[in-house]
Write a structure and sequence with these properties.
It is a single chain. With 51 residues, this protein is mainly α. Helices cover 88% and strands 0% of the residues.
């Protein structure tokens, strides 16, 4: 439920502090997604080499 509030605050930044923390969360989420993608690629490469 808090996640929905954060998304709503992104589109309607009435609280500057909340919007700021939300932008930081968004950056963190993007970093985590990129990290997972790189890790998955690395695992895929290992599997391809093993075959």
């Amino acid at each position: 439920m808090d996640f929905l509030v954060l998304i709503a605050d992104l589109f309607n930044p009435t609280h500057p502090e909340l919007a700021k923390s939300c932008r930081q969360d968004k950056t963190l989420l993007i970093m985590v997604l990129v990290g997972c993608t790189l890790f998955a690629g690395f695992i895929g490469m290992l599997v391809a080499m093993a075959n």
